[in-house]
Design a protein that fits this description.
about 0% strand, about 425 residues, mainly alpha
């Protein structure tokens, strides 16, 4: 073990302690962890801060602005009233419907863009329900749904695209478009039932400390009800959103460019002011995401992630049963996905696991498929993926993610072990 690896593990441990104890705000802890990799000499200044110029940062900021425009123009309220009219004021039923809706949309477009649209929608539903439905009970389950849904298709999220590219570059059978749906779809359905039934009361108890009437709901109640008489700017906002989604799907430009153009369009057309747009961006979430990308680069440069994977191989051996392999490697990947960027995790591990699978006599494509599924299983922290980090804007504490997302993380891990092991053993 090199000094760089020891230092890297020390930084990660310190970050975990900081996140759990919340001695500092989450964004401060994440940024200090990122900065520590530079101060220790593991990576240079340009590399450590490169995460803040990543395209995903611009996408997050842009979609947050568009989401706020939905709220300011009455678009979100309009949709919210339609959903309430269709679903009613039953909070459990609302969780079920919105979780499934978010998951389905996330399977075909950017998780973060979907989440940015759902946040103001949830707020408007809560506001229109007159206290019968609380956003704090819905936002985190929907955030998890964005990850689960994103893991249903090849285009649902970046990690599987990276994995697919690594498979193709290695001359191996690529995954089919809906192959990930073998695990993703059952998990999404389970998620909807989980939070609307089994985990509903624990969810409510876990966030009971949070205010029942956030500022944005107070503000909304002070505004004139848009009702069916919609603000003309609402239709402009809808048009911008449609064009943004088309832009995401066509991939003419990067997601960051598309989201930024959509945000500027909202400002230019008067859907919201530049001052409001700037103020409504969750800078804390952006700092966390940008810092996490820097931490991932530090772990990669130090060799810490590779060391951990190789160590686990040495522990379980190369002749272990498929179930043991899935339990061991699935656990390692699940832990890493709760601490690191999912894209970084898949980039670090797949090149290591392809030759490992071949050495064990396992189908490399199925092995990469399994690892990709486990990578998306980071529900106990908001650190792994930007769409989940966006839920921080609701006011959750770091411990809330363990209390709410943690139990489902365990259930999802066991289900993934069962399905992935069955695919190896039964050959489907």
């Amino acid at each position: 073990m090199t000094p760089e690896i020891i230092i890297s593990f020390g930084i990660i441990v310190a970050m975990i302690v900081g996140f759990v104890t919340e001695v500092f705000p989450l964004a401060v802890t994440a940024f200090l962890g990122c900065l520590a990799f530079y101060i220790s000499g593991i990576i240079d200044k340009a590399t450590v801060f490169s995460g803040f110029s990543n395209d995903i940062i611009f996408m997050i900021a842009g979609t947050m602005v568009v989401g706020e425009a939905m709220f300011q123009t009455g678009a979100a309220q309009f949709i919210g009233k339609k959903i309430i009219k269709a679903v009613g004021y039953n909070e459990r039923r609302m969780i079920f419907v919105l979780v499934l809706a978010c998951g389905v949309l996330s399977a075909f477009t950017s998780n973060s863009s979907v989440m940015a649209m759902f946040l103001p929608l949830i707020r408007s539903v809560a506001a229109a329900s007159d206290g019968k439905i609380k956003g704090k009970h819905i936002v985190m389950p929907v955030g998890i749904a964005s990850m689960v849904g994103g893991a249903c298709t090849l285009v649902g999220s970046t990690p599987q695209l990276v994995a697919q590219g690594l498979l193709e570059s290695s001359g191996l059978r690529p995954m089919t478009f809906f192959e990930l749906g073998i695990t993703g779809i059952p998990l999404l359905i389970l998620l909807a039932f989980w939070f609307s039934t089994i985990a509903y009361k624990p969810l409510v108890r876990s966030v009971a400390y949070m205010p029942d009437t956030p500022d944005y709901i107070r503000e909304l109640k002070g505004q004139e009800d848009t009702g069916e008489k919609a603000n003309p700017k609402m239709y402009v906002c809808f048009a911008i959103i449609i064009l943004m989604v088309i832009g995401f799907l066509c991939e003419l430009w990067t997601v960051g460019v598309v989201a930024s153009l959509a945000a500027m369009a909202c400002i230019v057309t008067g859907c919201l002011s530049a001052k409001t747009a700037f103020a409504k961006i969750s800078w804390s979430a952006i700092v966390i995401v940008g810092s996490t990308l820097g931490v991932a680069k530090g772990l990669n440069a130090s060799g810490a992630a590779g060391f951990l994977a190789n160590w686990l191989v040495g522990v379980i051996g190369t002749n272990a049963s498929v179930v043991v392999v899935m339990l061991a490697f699935g656990l390692m990947v699940t832990i890493m996905s709760n601490l690191l960027s999912h894209t970084a995790t898949i980039s670090l591990l797949v090149p290591i696991f392809i030759p490992l699978a071949q050495e064990m006599g396992l189908d490399p494509t199925l092995f990469v498929y399994a690892i990709t599924c486990f990578v998306m299983c980071g529900y106990a922290t908001p650190l792994g993926v930007s769409s989940y980090a966006m839920t921080l804007a609701e006011g959750y504490s770091f411990r809330d993610y363990q209390k709410i997302g943690g139990p489902f993380n365990i259930v999802a891990y066991l289900i993934l072990v069962a399905i992935c092991s069955a695919r190896f053993l039964l050959g489907f």
